[in-house]
């Protein structure tokens, strides 16, 4: 089962906020406005986030363009305030009307190795989203430590721990969440995926996993998932599998192979290429398509408002 963070009641939200101190409570309450009851939830709308990379330090600033082999010269790197990036994304999601009923964080919630302190900060930052009535699903990335996250989720029963994969059945499409945290899916999970898709062939499927299925063609050279070719073959053989969404490369990219759309989500946090976008994606589902709109955290970025469409039916 995937890690699911259910909505918070107002009482739960205030209790959590009070534990953080008055200033944190005021900031969180401001993010959660307007009241969850005043804005409807749309079951055909999903907010897509990836690579939040939250640090235990709420003031952490990270130079994403600084990596081995980066073409960016020393002194010209671009840095991002990590916590502020997620807070801004949360505010944007909450401001939607109607709000998405679901939000997916597609891996790498944490910056380091997934410490409890990092996840406490992550949970604090996403609390306003939950208080707004939105259910959060989390996939596992290479920076995540599922055991440490489980420790902070007492409502997650032991029998639901283990492989973090499941199917979210929505009116117009099924969303299949995969566990690629170790850089591969493995035979067991690939067989599980094939079974889930075959049992639901009457509805389009959108598949989510943290890892890129093939080597990145963008700013930073990043190897693909070790069994990515097997995943792509499995999906290409099932015509109702319409898209694979992934993070990891911190870059907004799009590709298509036959009926299968390949959507590379941007990071909410830092980016690897100088001047690149970071932000989140608003997905609206209809009977015939999944309509994607990029929300850059820099509203003046040239890619802000960029749109892609995933066809859910053959023409």
What does it look like?
The chain is an alpha/beta fold and 315 residues long. The protein has one domain (3-311): Purple Acid Phosphatase, chain A, domain 2. The chain is built from seven helices and 15 strands. It has helices spanning 10-20, 22-32, 82-94, 116-131, 146-151, 186-199, 228-236; strands at 3-5, 41-49, 61-63, 79-81, 99-106, 135-139, 166-169, 174-177, 205-208, 241-246, 253-257, 260-264, 279-285, 289-296, 307-311. The strands form three sheets. A seven-stranded mixed sheet has the order 1-6-5-2-13-14-15, covered by helices on one side. Strand 8, helix 6 and strand 9 (205-208) form a beta-alpha-beta unit.
From N to C, what is the helix and strand string? EHHEEEHEHEHEEHEHEEEEEE
Q: Number of helical runs?
A: 7
**Strand arrangement in the largest pleated sheet:** 1-6-5-2-13-14-15
Overall geometry comes to globular
Number-wise, the strands total: 15
The CATH topology annotation reads as Purple Acid Phosphatase, chain A, domain 2
Overall helicity: 25-40%
The tally of structural domains comes to 1
CATH H-tier superfamily: Metallo-dependent phosphatases
Low-confidence stretches: 21-26
Radius of gyration: 18 Å
**Text of the CATH class:** Alpha Beta
The largest β sheet comes out as: 7 strands, mixed
Question: What does this entry show, briefly?
Answer:
With 315 residues, the protein is of the alpha/beta class. The chain is built from seven helices and 15 strands.
Describe the structure using short key phrases.
six-stranded mixed sheet; 25% helix; 25% strand; alpha/beta; Purple Acid Phosphatase, chain A, domain 2
């Amino acid at each position: 089962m995937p890690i699911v963070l259910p909505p918070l009641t107002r009482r739960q939200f205030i209790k959590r906020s009070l534990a953080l101190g008055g200033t944190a409570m005021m900031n969180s309450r401001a993010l959660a406005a307007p009241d969850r009851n005043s804005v409807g939830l749309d079951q055909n709308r999903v907010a897509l986030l990836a690579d939040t990379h939250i640090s235990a330090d709420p003031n952490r600033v990270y130079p994403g363009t600084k990596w081995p082999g980066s073409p960016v010269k020393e002194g010209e790197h671009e840095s991002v305030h990590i916590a502020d990036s997620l807070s801004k994304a949360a505010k944007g999601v909450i401001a939607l009307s109607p709000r998405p009923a679901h939000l997916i964080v597609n891996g790498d919630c944490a910056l380091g190795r997934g410490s409890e302190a990092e996840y406490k900060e992550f949970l604090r930052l996403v609390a306003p989203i939950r208080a707004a009535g939105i259910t959060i699903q989390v996939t596992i990335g290479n920076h995540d430590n599922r055991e440490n996250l489980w420790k902070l989720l007492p409502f997650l029963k032991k029998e639901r721990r283990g492989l973090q994969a499941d199917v979210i059945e929505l009116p117009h499409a099924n969303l299949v969440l995969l566990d690629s945290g170790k850089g591969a899916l493995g035979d067991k999970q690939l067989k599980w995926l094939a079974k889930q898709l075959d049992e639901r062939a009457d509805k389009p499927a959108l598949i989510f996993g943290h890892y890129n299925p093939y080597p990145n063609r963008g700013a930073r050279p990043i190897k693909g998932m070790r069994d990515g070719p097997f995943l792509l073959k499995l999906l290409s053989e099932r015509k109702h599998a319409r898209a694979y969404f992934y993070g990891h490369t911190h870059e907004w990219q799009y590709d298509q192979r036959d009926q299968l759309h390949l959507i590379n989500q941007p990071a909410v946090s830092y980016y690897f290429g100088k001047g690149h976008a970071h932000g989140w994606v608003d997905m609206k589902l209809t009977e015939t398509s999944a309509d994607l709109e990029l929300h850059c955290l820099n509203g003046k970025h040239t890619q802000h408002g960029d749109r892609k469409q995933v066809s859910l039916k053959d023409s």
